[in-house]
Specification:
The complex is a heterodimer of chains A (788) and B (284). With 788 residues, chain A is α+β, with helices and mostly antiparallel strands. Among the domains of chain A are: 194 residues, Aldehyde oxidase/xanthine dehydrogenase, a/b hammerhead (Aldehyde Oxidoreductase, domain 3, Alpha-Beta Complex), CATH 3.90.1170.50; 146 residues, Aldehyde Oxidoreductase, domain 4 (2-Layer Sandwich). Helices cover 28% and strands 23% of the residues of chain A. A seven-stranded mixed β-sheet of chain A has the order 3-5-1-12-9-10-11, sandwiched between helices. With 284 residues, chain B is an alpha+beta fold. Chain B is built from twelve helices and 14 strands. In chain B, the strands form four sheets. Chain B has a five-stranded antiparallel β-sheet. Classes of the chains: A alpha+beta (788), B alpha+beta (284). The interface between A and B is medium-sized, with 28 and 19 residues.
């Protein structure tokens, strides 16, 4: 029956993408459409003394200029956050208003002050320069830790010390302190997990379309989760009844988390369209994307790990200051807490863990999920500690991991593993992936080469990372208890057409992941029909009942499972119809290869026949409803927990400090695999981004809060020639609690790779006594360390 | 990403381009490959009222020999030079440098003349042209003149080119027998311009350096000849030690630039490293 699952089926969506036929938000042209340009603060922190729009409005072709004052006077709300994290003492986190346009103060470079709406994009852009804003520049703070210090400029007057919340998880601090006090050795690292800019290939865009005749609104937007955007925008910001609003996220060119956030521009174009009774389109240019897309990471951390004399971990103590930016994005409070603190167990049997996180406002753009979201930060911390401890304790880093691994468990015969930090792992075989990665790298041979190379003055290094991640965040009751203001289930509807063709409506959203292929593989296999007979529909609130969208590697594990639930219902009902047609009892039928057969006979009826009968129910089971169309909500029992082992080999040029990545080995266990080509692609892309953070990327804000590398001339994205040909392999430990046994592959590469690369560089630099350097490991940083 | 409004003229000859430039004066800019000008216009850092497009003038796009000299038309693209056997056999640093510029798209559009006229302090060609003893041919309403590469680059994005002049060709004299050259570059990882680039040409006779020509780019406000390195190596045996010692003079006394990729101190260090690498490669 398995014709498609497990096969490297070519992506059905690629034909339209690579022939330029994709339909992105900015491609949409509506009759009477106007164009918006947003006037943004050039200062990170400034009082707005006045805004004069008269010169701009005098330009021919300018329809209207709205300012923060117009927004304030309209009485609409600001942008909400989707997660609540309270202070340790129980006080509610600080949740300052985030107006669609600011009227009093700009709080980051790029804060929106006014919107110019004109007949053309060019006129809007020209008129934008004519909006005269008087600013009184104020001192700014961009660094999370400095922002909490006495005397730091305040981002919001009602958030003292710029603190949004403080939070802890794990064992009581006293217990951890006690465990640490008994440790034979403590490894301590202080570092910054630097801010990175997501850089999706398609800049954000939104079109607001109010139709007065029907009193209906349509928002086209570059979103990873159109339904969530609709809910937040309608219920929290604009107060428009949800049934009057359609949100469409058509083809979307990448998100990496930065398009989860319900951005102010989305509500703004709807609000403007309602005022002007004309469609309003806004599309960011690349500079605007650098400056205003939600950034990722940005933690200042001190981490300590205690070991006994044999190298067994006794305790872990972590203090992190997480930069949230100037306002709260949709997932901001969740990322450094519930997606970060909960990963502190790693793959190890650490008995006592305490993680303490302070969420901090700064005069920088908002921080939200970025590929991995919290889990890369946790993994970086743990895996840097492990390699550093190995060096300090003179234990082989692979051996140190083996000493501390949680033993293998399948989650069926053996129970899941209960961590000290809330999660219960589903299934795992951590030794397996490390063993395979060591084989692939030829570990012993490499150590000999390294020794010989050192004698020739060549600096080679090897670095390890054995990671776990938590995907498909769920179930809703649990996330609700943790502060989520939404459920985290998914919706999957399967509509069998009378001719047996199948339309599938999913609440997941594909912005590069290939759902139209992978989901169709699952549906075609389960129903025993050709993939061509299956259409996957997503991204439109008018056709898809509801959905929570795509992030956290949840699409197949949660969205795919919702579809499977509906497929089960289809097959179950189909059996009733088939039994009636075959004049057999349901129990005597089996369903395979797209037909129901009376067991032990050649009597059968095909899927198409049953579909037609369901819609033309002339000869039909009594009491059975016509039609073959089911919708399901799937709320998972648990997260899924992919894991893997990554190994990097680097060479450092002693003259320049330049790091060359020579080899990268990744053995990932993402559970069952539906399309190995797509999974490989996800791993490759993830590795590139993770390696990019280690060696190349990083947003740089100066002391005035100016983003000084907001262009591709200044911000280094990883390119093909920065990377070796990846050596990848897989192990399969199925997820025991979802019907497909899948765990998720979207973020694995990013999570595992960053510490492996940094560890490799530290290994190469160990003859210099260098233990820790900040990312990105730029040539100058490395050169300075070698020469200080 | 939307530039100001501008008028566009496509010149059909160099003479017409010169006329158009004279007509529009300071408000006009020449457009060749556009890979520096257009991004600057989209960011509104440069806001010309008129563009005079010389990018399709066949009379500017050639690579040829004239007597002993290699003559490259100002409109030759980086890719034209990268693929020219004539350029490679004259001085291999020409093709090395061409291949290290930007990426394929940039090399297909960007021109030698455009790069020299723009005079980005981190561009590759200025150093290569100085090291090659190139002469730059200019034409304006009052006729033609020639300026040596040594005298052409006058400062930060500044050259000897007058407002109404166009670069027409670059003339590179044939190097003496026994000359080898190399261009070695430490790339700024995002833009792929030079943090430091060193062009070196060495004329060797019996293991001794008869003549050496060295120029650096990326280090300061303009590319320049490293005369002190040349002096330190001329007449010396081309040993690893002598080359390393001469390279120590690279960047001496220079006010280096600094940015978030490379500080002043690090750039000066790299100047020595890349001078050594270029000289070693040229002396081989």
């Amino acid at each position: 029956m398995t014709n498609y699952i497990g096969k490297a089926v070519k992506r059905v969506e690629d034909k339209r993408f690579i022939t330029g036929k994709g339909r992105y938000t900015d491609d949409i042209i509506l009759p009477g459409m106007t164009h918006a340009y947003i006037v943004r603060s050039p200062y990170a922190h400034a009082r707005i003394s006045s805004v004069d729009t008269s010169a701009a409005e005098a330009i021919e072709g300018v329809v209207k200029v709205f300012t923060g004052k117009d927004i304030a006077e309209s009485g609409i709300n600001g942008i909400p956050t989707g997660w609540q994290v309270n202070f340790k003492n129980g006080d509610t986190m600080k949740e300052p208003p985030h107006p669609l346009l600011v009227s009093d103060k700009a709080r980051y470079m790029g804060d929106a002050v006014a919107i110019v709406i004109a007949e053309s994009r060019e006129i809007a852009r020209d008129a934008g320069d004519m909006v005269e804003v008087e600013y009184e520049e104020l001192p700014a703070v961009a660094d999370a830790k400095k922002a909490t210090e006495a005397g730091a400029p305040l981002v919001h007057d009602d958030a003292p010390n710029n603190m949004c919340f403080d939070w802890e998880l794990g064992n009581p601090k006293a217990e951890v302190d006690e465990a640490m006090s008994k440790a034979h050795h403590i490894t301590t690292l202080e570092f910054v997990n630097q801010r990175v800019i997501p850089n999706a290939i398609e800049p954000r865009s939104a079109i607001g379309h109010f139709e007065e005749s029907s009193d209906k609104y349509t928002l086209y937007t570059t979103s990873q989760n159109p339904h969530l955007t609709r809910l937040l925008m309608c219920a929290f910001v604009l107060g428009i009844p949800e049934h009057k609003v359609r949100v469409v996220a058509p083809d979307v060119g990448g998100g990496f988390g930065s398009k989860i956030f319900h951005y102010a521009e989305e509500a703004l174009v709807i609000w403007c369209s309602q005022r002007l009774k004309r469609p309003v389109k806004w599309t960011a240019d690349r500079s605007e994307a650098f400056m205003t897309d939600a950034h990722g990471r940005d933690h200042v951390t001190k981490a300590e790990m205690g070991f006994d004399k044999d190298g067994k971990i006794m305790g872990l103590r972590v203090k992190t200051y997480a930069n949230l930016g100037a306002y709260l994005s949709t997932f901001a409070p969740c990322v450094p807490t519930w997606l970060h603190g909960t990963l502190m167990q790693g793959l190890y049997t650490t008995p006592k863990i305490n993680v303490d996180v302070t969420g901090v406002f700064t005069h920088t753009v908002m921080v939200d999920a970025y590929r991995g979201a919290g889990r890369p930060e946790a993994t970086y911390l743990l895996e840097r500690l492990m390699d550093t401890a190995a060096l300090e304790m003179k234990i082989d880093p692979a051996e140190l991991r083996r000493k501390n691994f949680i033993p293998a468990f399948d989650g069926v015969k053996q129970a899941g593993y209960q961590t000290q930090v809330a999660l219960q792992y589903d299934s795992g075989n951590y030794q397996g992936v490390l063993k395979r990665a060591l084989e692939m790298v030829g570990y012993e041979k490499f150590r000999e080469e390294q020794k010989a190379a050192r004698k020739d003055g060549k600096l080679l290094g090897i670095g390890f990372s054995t990671y776990i991640e938590a995907c498909g965040i769920a179930p809703s009751a649990v996330v609700g208890a943790l502060g989520a203001r939404a459920g985290l289930y998914e919706v999957g509807q399967v509509r069998v057409q009378p001719t047996g063709k199948v339309s599938v409506y999913t609440g997941s959203h594909s912005h590069g992941q290939g759902h139209e292929t992978t989901f169709a593989q699952v549906v075609a296999d389960r129903l025993g029909i050709p993939m061509d007979d299956v259409e996957i529909i997503h991204g439109d609130s008018e056709s898809v009942a509801f959905g929570m969208g795509t992030y956290g590697s949840r699409s197949l594990a949660v969205g795919g499972s919702a579809i499977v639930k509906s497929l089960d219902k289809i097959i179950e009902k189909g059996a009733k119809i088939a039994a009636h047609k075959l004049e057999a009892s349901e129990e005597d039928l089996e369903f395979a290869e797209g037909k129901w057969t009376v067991k032990g006979t050649d009597k059968s009826v095909g899927f198409g026949d049953v579909a037609l009968t369901a819609y033309v129910p002339h000869n039909y089971p009594a009491g059975l409803e016509p039609g073959l169309d089911f919708s399901s909500f799937y709320d998972p029992a648990n997260f899924t927990y992919p894991f893997g082992a990554h190994i990097a080999i680097v060479e450092v040029d002693q003259d320049t400090g330049k790091v060359s990545l020579k080899r990268f080995i990744a053995v990932d266990d993402v559970g069952n695999v539906i399309n190995p080509m797509i999974v490989d692609g996800q791993i490759h892309g993830g590795l590139a981004q993770g390696i990019g953070q280690a060696l190349l990327e990083g947003a740089v804000y100066d002391e005035n809060g100016q983003l000084i590398n907001g262009s591709y001339m200044d911000y280094t994205m990883p390119r093909a020639d920065d990377l070796p040909s990846f050596e990848i392999d897989r192990q399969v430990t199925p997820c025991p609690h979802n019907p497909l046994g899948v765990k998720g592959a979207g973020e694995a590469g990013t999570i595992g790779s960053t510490p492996a690369v940094v560890n490799a560089v530290m290994d190469a630099l160990s003859p210099f006594g260098i233990k820790n350097l900040e990312m990105p490991l730029t040539p100058e940083r490395v050169w300075r360390a070698m020469n200080s | 990403m939307i530039p100001n409004k501008f008028d566009y003229h496509r010149a059909t000859s160099v003479d017409e381009a010169i006329r158009l430039m004279a007509q529009h004066g300071m408000d006009a800019k020449l457009l060749a490959g556009g890979h520096s000008l257009l991004p600057a216009m989209k960011l509104r850092l440069n806001q010309p009222g008129v563009l005079v497009d010389i990018g399709r003038l066949a009379e500017l796009r050639y690579i040829k020999k004239e007597g002993d000299s290699l003559v490259i038309g100002a409109g030759a693209t980086h890719d034209d030079i990268a693929n020219s056997d004539m350029a490679r056999s004259t001085l291999s640093m020409l093709s090395e440098a061409a291949n290290l510029i930007g990426d394929v798209q940039v090399r297909n559009k960007g021109t030698l003349g455009g790069s020299l006229a723009h005079a980005d302090p981190a561009a590759d060609w200025p150093a290569v042209m100085i090291a090659a003893h190139a002469n730059i041919e200019l034409r304006g309403p009052n006729g033609s003149r020639t300026v040596s590469a040594d005298d052409f680059f006058t400062g930060f994005y500044m050259t000897a080119l007058a407002e109404d002049e166009i670069i027409t060709a670059i003339r590179i004299p044939a190097p003496p027998k026994g000359t080898h050259s190399s261009y070695q570059k430490f790339m700024q990882p995002a833009s792929r311009f030079a943090i430091v680039g060193c062009a070196a040409s060495v004329t060797k006779d019996g293991g001794v350096c008869q003549k050496v020509s060295v120029a650096l780019t990326g280090l300061s406000d303009t590319a320049f000849r490293a005369s002190n390195v040349e002096a330190a190596l001329t007449g010396k045996k081309l040993t690893k030690e002598n080359i390393a010692a001469a390279a120590q003079a690279a960047g001496e006394g220079v006010m280096a630039m600094g940015d978030h990729f490379a500080s002043e101190e690090y750039r000066l260090h790299l100047a020595k490293v890349f001078a050594k690498r270029a000289l070693m490669a040229a002396a081989e």
